[in-house]
Amino acid sequence: MSEKTLEGVKAVEATIAGFGKAIEKMKTRTPEFPSDIYFWECIKNKYEQIHEANLSGKPIVMSGMFVPSELYHAMDIPCIFAEYNSTMMAGKGDYFQYMDSAESSGMSNEICAPHRVAYGLAKAQMLPRPSFIVSTATTCDQTPKLYEILSKHYQVPNYLIDSAYGYQGHFVNYMREEMEGLIAFLEEQTGRKLDYDRLK
Known about the structure:
Elements: H1 9-28, H2 35-56, E1 61-63, H3 70-74, E2 79-81, H4 82-89, H5 95-104, H6 113-123, E3 132-136, H7 142-154, E4 158-161, H8 169-190, H9 196-199
Parallel strand pairs: 1-2, 1-3, 3-4
Helix pairs in contact: 1-2, 4-6, 5-6, 6-7
């Protein structure tokens, strides 16, 4: 597949370049917290992993921010957090054009801006096309709907984690079953088995 037919190539390259410039600028002065540089280097590395996977045709997951991403890391699955990504990439153009685009497809203007921007970015082909989607009912009702919409837009499978409402034993058991289901889903979608030692 050529870069011309891939979605999100130029947008992600521009985002990575922007991170690089910001990091170099931070290094020219003494930051209040050196961890700021480490943080942005980590974010840049994540986008580089997404970009490499997009170019090489490897699986990419689009995910809600409250899904345990340790599973993705253990299975070498680059992850796009759609809402977080909205704040990272929307500055590359007119923020409102992505919200307007989402609203023109039926999203209410009362939906949170990051959700509208996420869908607008997807419609504008500003994101790498995910292989599958994972979402959770945490923390707002709009989040599962966003990922359902994105799943339909990209025509890819979507796994929804039904979050528990408490910490008592039966809630823990319920969430254990949900996590086991997610692991099975990731294994099915990628053809890889989770290495539990690596996860630990």
